[in-house]
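Supplementary Methods S3. Complex input for the adenosine-5-diphosphoribose-bound model.
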Amino acid sequence: MSDPGGAAGTVSAEAIAAARAALARALRVVVFTGAGVSAESGVPTFRGAGGLWKTFKPEDLASPVAFGRDPRLVWEWYGWRREMVGRCRPNAAHLALARWMLGRAGVTLVSQNVDDLHERAAREAAGGVEAARRAEPVRLHGSLFHDRCTRCACRSEARGALDTTGIATLPHCPECGGLLRPDVVWFGEMLPARSVEAAFAAAGEAEACLVIGTTGAVYPAAGVVHTAKSAGAQVVIVDPGRTEYEDLADVRLVGPAGEIVPRIVG
Ligand code: APR
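Predicted complex, serialized as structure tokens:
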């Protein structure tokens, strides 16, 4: 494994060169991101300092049981997250990844994030919705800015201000009138089958796997990196902290994504 170095400023030129070489020579790359890639945009992570799960209990807010028990409380919390994340902008890591994906073939971006910042970076880098498709992620955990009906399961883009004063004022389905819920994957729920298929197919044929800003603690998503490693991929990790993947790393870059990612894919 190449020398990890310390804070971003001290990541060695050798480690940067090793990461660039591993990514450049790979015909097929899978990029796997977590909350850390959005930390420099102001989106809190889950388990790091100031992380959401340090302040809130996932069992009270991010589970079907919690929603059944108190949909107003859950909507209040997702309303707060939507507003907060809505004010954030893609950072240098999101934009460098999007430009890189638009400039070469064979890269699949798989994200656990629900903040839409990869999507916004793709649109910004491509200059339009259609052209951005090539740089959009496979979303394993859904999206903060979409709703799903609890009765007919139809999905829709989140619309309008949220009023949590009563059950009747909460968002309801334009099709069947059923209660809507945020279209995110909650603890204990299945991941979207098509996304899982696409993510693990890409991991199974990858020659390089770039892991950015995830502890790798939540399965089945975290299995993407193990699948890539078993398929023979070179694993490059960008994270200022320790992750569950340390033993898998071929190149380990210790530091913030916003500073390191543009240096390895730019
Ligand atoms: N750049 C890169 N990585 C960073 C940065 C940064 N600027 N700041 C923090 N990190 C790293 C942390 O060191 C940590 O390893 O980001 C990681 C964030 O880990 P978690 O908070 O555990 O988030 P994540 O791995 O994405 O969580 C997985 O858990 O709660 C569920 O569904 C939720 O998708 C989420 C899943």
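The longest strand covers residues 142-149. The two ends are 22 Å apart (CA to CA).
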